[in-house]
Each structure stands twice: as structure tokens, then as C-alpha cells.
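On clarity, I found the account of how folds are encoded harder to follow than it need be. Since the whole study asks how a given chain folds, the encoding of that fold should be made plain. For illustration, here is how one protein appears when written out as sequence plus C-alpha cells:
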Amino acid sequence: METSSIAQEYYKIRDLWLAAEQKTNWKLAVWVAQYADVEMIDKFMQIEQSPVGESNDIFFRFETEYKGDRPLFEEQLWNEFLSWFTPHSQKDKDIHRALWENKFITEPFVPDESLAPNAINLFGELERLRASIKDQNEQFCFCLYFPLAVQTKMNIAQWFQQVVEHLPDNLRLVSMDLVEERRIQLQGKKDNESLYHYLYPKLKMAEAIKNEMYKASDNYNSVDPDARFRKQVIVVMDSTTQKTQNRTDIEVKRLLDITKEIGTVSSKIAGLLVAAQAYFSLQKVKKSEEYTDKALEESSKAMEKDDATGYPVWKSCMLLKAALLFGNKDKNGALKIYEELSEKASKRQDAYYVMEANRLISHIYYEKNELAKAFESILFSLAAGAYLEIDVRRQSTFLHAAFMCLYLGEKIKTAAEVNEIKLQLADWLGDDWEILLAQAGVDSASLKTNPSILDKQLSKFK
């Protein structure tokens, strides 16, 4: 029986890091990760940046994207470093205040802004900050973490190779690479010791996540139909990954039989939606359409009766219906679906779905080369998204809408109007909005709506 858990996989990462930390010779550590493991490793690094981290070292995360221009990159890193010492309205984002208020440093640290913005001076100022920390009883380093997102287009290994020998003794660099497409494979020694350390985590994240889902489904309770329903949803979606001897038809039938046994409107609608999504994943369009239409019909009836379960499923069905229409080259049909979704979401004050519907409307108008309508729709999307909490805006498709607004603005608006857009984005997302967009990986290629993008959009309902 497979017993992997998310906690076990996390501890594997932690133990691997704590062992690496004890090695004193390396200056750059690289996590060589499978695609499925990237998020867990990145979460580990985030935890190590926080007070609950278990490492002796102190971690700092840089978000500046490397674009191949060393002087520009180092200037942007320098500016990002300076921003840490600018008072921040959100206390949890003010690194300097946290260090000072928690009495980690002997006196407030003031960066020397007269220095040239390059790597050597950045490392020197970080070393000066390190020296100001009160407790020097135990050996510790500053670890500068460069996540996978900062090397999306250009290979940051070039920069690592240029600066690694200039790092002070108590500074280290950390980054991530992908097993499937290795980019950071450096060799080099200093004082006869290797400068690079590679960490190869052997994780079972897919298995661990599945086990956690089964736990949440109470899979030990074989009598309770609700528990069996939750478990069967997982079985159905898991079946869609089977390339041979696919069992989706059988598992969907079992799921719908359980919904009949439960007998509630909500379970019936949810079962139909899961079936629709399962066949969508298999690209069986006709079957997906069949179940989508049934789910829409039932959820619409529930909405008419003011049943609370109707609207949440209905809006998911609408996204799926629009994706199917778009996949069949029916852009106008998809447009009508998104417009209806926007209208009903607006009446229910569902800001997130108003944002999403209008973002997707804008994509379609963009593909139809109706740029003025696309721009108008993306403004509506952002206006709706502005009602969300800033943390949601900074971690959602609001970032894609922001990029699209800027992209379209630069095509059809004046320079002054584009500048107004930038000022508004700073207000909605924070002064680091450009770094956020770069980290999210949004670019002009993401403006083209395609089935894979729509599939990602629907994945959160699976």
C-alpha cells in the first residue's frame, strides 16, 4: 500500500537541505527537480525565509528576472535590495522592520545608495547587513534564492558563473533546475574545493497528493455514500490519465450511480460536472458537451429555486461550455457564454468571476482583431478584480489581465495613457508590479486563447 504523504515529502527536502548546509565549501546550490516537485521545493524555500525555518542560514528571495544583460540585471537586483529597506504598508513584507523590531540587528541598517549598482557592491552590502546581526555565536550564511521564475527565458547559469567566485565567505546562492531540461550544469573549484552543490530530491508528490485527497475523502468509510462519492471523484479524474485500457466510462457510471443513491440535487449536478470535466480531459468533445448541457440544465433549475448549490456549479459549467465552443472554433458562441457569466456574476457581486469572464472575453476580441473591444473588456476585468484582496490579485489571473491591459494599451493608446495604466497597476498590485508580471511568466504568447490555457483555467474545479 502506498503511504507517501505531503509531510513526508517535505521532510525529505528539509533533510537534504540540512545535510547540504553542513558542507562549508560550496557557493551555489541547485535543486535539480522534477516538474511535479517544483512547487513543494519552492514552498520549502519560502518557509526557510520565515521565522519558522529550521536552517541556521538566513534566506533572501530575489524576484528580478534575468534577461541576459548583466549590468541591467545587477542594477535591478540592487534596486530590489534597496526596496527591502523602504518602509512597507504591509508589515509582513517589510524585511528591515522585522529585523529591527525583533532585535536581530544592532542598529537600523542603511544601505549605501552612493555605490554603483553591481553585484560586487550588492554582495558587500549584504555582508555588512550580516555583520550587523546580534547573535554571531553560531556560524550562518546569507542564502540568496533565485527561483525558477527568474530564468524563464535566458539561462541565469551564465551570471552565476560570472559572480560565484566573488561571493564573500558567508554568502551563498541557491536556485532550481529541471531534470527534464537541465540548464545549470557548472563545474569549477576554488582552493581545490567544488564551488557547486547539486541536490537531487527523490519525491513522490503525485502519490502524496493523491493519498491526502483519499484521506480527505474518508476512504475508510465504505458505507457512507458521501464519502464514497468524494473518493469516486478522485478515481474518475485519475482514470483520465490512463493511456491504455482506459476506465473512465466505467468510473463515471459508478459515480453517477452513487449520486442517485445520495439523491440530492447538489450531488447530481456535481456528478454531471465531474463527468463533463473528465471527458473534456480526454478530449471526447461530444460526451463532454452532453454532460455539460445536463449539468447546466440542472444547475439552472437549482438557481431558479434559489438553491444555494446551483450557482457555484453553474458558473463552472459555463466555463466548460465556453471552452468546448471555443475548441469547436465557435468564438461567437463562447463570447455569449462569457457575457452571460459576467452578467450573472455581477448580479451576485462575484468579483472574481466577473474578472475572469471579462478577461476571457478580451482574449476572444483580441483574436478577432477587435482591439478596442478587447481593451474595454480587459479594463472591466481589472475593475472587477480591484474589489478582491490585494493578496488575491497578486496571485491570480489578475496578473494576466494586467499584462494584457498594458499590452493592448501600448498598441492603441497614447504614451500618456499607457503611463496612467502603469500608475494604476502600481496602485492595484504594488510598486513591484513589473517583477510580479515577470515572475508570473505572462507575455504576448499568453494572449492567444487555446485549449491548453482553457484546460488550466478549468483545472481548479477538478
Summary: Confidence is low (pLDDT under 50) at residues 217-221, 450-462. The two ends are 25 Å apart (CA to CA). Residues 331-461 form a domain with the Serine Threonine Protein Phosphatase 5, Tetratricopeptide repeat fold (CATH 1.25.40). The longest strand covers residues 171-178.
